[in-house]
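Reviewers asked in the last cycle whether our approach scales beyond single polypeptides. To address this, we selected a multi-component target totalling 671 residues and predicted its structure end to end. The input consisted of the following lines:
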Amino acid sequence: MEEILNGLADAVIKGDEEKAKEMAKKAIEANIDPLIAINNGLMKGMQKVSEDFNKLIIYLPDVMMAAEAMKAALSILEPKILEKKVKEEKKKVVIGTIQGDIHDIGKNIVALLLKANGFEVYDLGRDVPVDEFIRKAEEVNADIIAVSTLLSTSMPYMEDLINLLKERGLREKYIVMVGGGPVTREWAMSIGADGYGEDGEEAVRVAKELIKVKKK
Amino acid sequence: MITIWEVLDRAETGPYMEEKDFDIKIIAKKCRELVKEYDIKYNPEEIITTDSSLADDLFEAGLRLALEAGIYCQSTKRIIKFSEEEIKEGIKSAPSEIIVGQGRDSRILYARDIEDKRRPIICGGQAGATIPEEWYVPMAMSYMKEHLIDMINHGGLAIVEGRKVRTHSPLEIQATRRELVMLREAAARAGRPGIGLIAGESSVTALGDLAIASERYMRSTDSHLVALLNELKTDYDRLAKAVNFTEYGAYNVTLVDPIIGGYAGGPEGVAIVFIASFLLGRLLYRSEYHVCHPIHFRYVSTSAPECMWNLSIVGQAMARNTKFIIMGDVWTSAGAGSEMIFYEIAANTITNVVTGTHPLGVSATNGKYPHASGLETRFMAEVALASVKLKRNEANEIVLKLLNEYKDKMGKPDIGKPFPELYDMKKVVPKSDWETLYKSMKKKINDIIGGIIEV
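The resulting structure, written as structure tokens, was:
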């Protein structure tokens, strides 16, 4: 069993889709609980990928390839788990670069790292209208709305989002996280956001902490 | 050189591609291949290398990337491709000097060489930051009053007359015009009415930019930045800015800011993207000069070692193979009012000046907080003027020593103080504690760098 779990982790670390699929099939053949294969194999690999990326040992394309390998293995493992159980395991994040802004690398990095850390991520892309975040969050019953911008003139749209959530009586339903180049911790607090990430690593850590608090 | 009309035609008719494929199958893949093929290696012990063959190999790799990748237009999802002949025509036709500013405040901005003994042009201001409207004039004056500063690139406005400026809203027009009105007022009050500007920072889309193409705001000897989006991309907003200033007759400047750790990979891939961006920016935006701004995935700052290596090797590659005019950004993690900022400024500035670029800064706290002033930019200018005495190997030793003083603090920098706490807002002079810190840090750093700064 150890060999297969290490194989799954290794396939993710190397971004090897074919090997990831092969190891996922082997896990099923060996009667390994798919959840164990995911958590002790794929996620272990993804954790190493996140760590290496944060230390700049590897780069964004490597993380993207790792995510693709993980997706390939999950397509084989997930159908073997009861649908309900999977849904209970994953927390949902709706993420995007807000209105007016077309810069998305930072948002892409955070989205990838959240996925790597077990979140189900709905990436709305860039230049996303304020109400679209809410529409999508309602549609997928999200836990977190995560908003990014590199433009100081798109920061007011973050405040608009929080105000619109309040207007619609939905503010308490969602954790709102903000980040991006000009966004500061102080500003995030001033608009009433729940969380802020200076970088991808902090964003993931804060998302996990806020989910724990929400559960209580 | 290829016309702007032809560029726009190609944005509509070039090969179609999904953006994700361009990022991964073109940029990431080709950068990785070219780094390997040309054996480009980042050496943290040699921030400033004397290996000219590395610079030439990098230039060749960048030219290949420019040819093979082209520029992706996000608005049309098409790739704007250029032939080798067109790229070479862009290199040949690039001006090696231009006049910025007017009258006695005008300066000749020129293409620097490696270890160039000529005085570099100093461009001051907290570029990239948002500055509160009520401080804007005195803060801009604090730079303009420094006689060593030749040009200004100050931040933009995010609030105008108490109203938050939202991207693409009509307020973008007012914010950009107000920025220019206040820069002109500051220049007049500082006795530098003709000082050359790189401005229009409040114009994040083309709206504000279109509104300032008038002698009342921007003169034909002023410049605006037109960014290449990460990596090797543009869109109709950026192209509209370039078209506008091309027809207006002021300078287009390519802002290139690839991310170390992003699609291009590590420092080596980013260096290749820089070369390709400058070559393509010349054709795409008809740029007269260019800004080199490596972004560190974690720290942002150009003073991070991987970023300074990029400034150094890219500057050298361009100086050896073209006559492009290039400015190198000086963006620090620390803020004005801190000790740390002086080490970052010194290391970053020496790197730029010795390897072929003019310093542009200081954008303290990476433009995140308005914790900046003219005084630390005076220090940047003093270091820049002294750096012309240095050879690359001497500069490298000094930069490594300076880097040791701040590299471990980059994750949690001292962000210093806001401008009103550093300057007397009425007289627009540094407050005594800020001036005392400047003097003591100048002495401390001058001791480290061999006493080359004139006291």
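The beta strands of chain A are 92-97, 120-123, 144-148, 175-179, 195-197. We regard this as preliminary and will revisit it once experimental data from Aim 1 are available.
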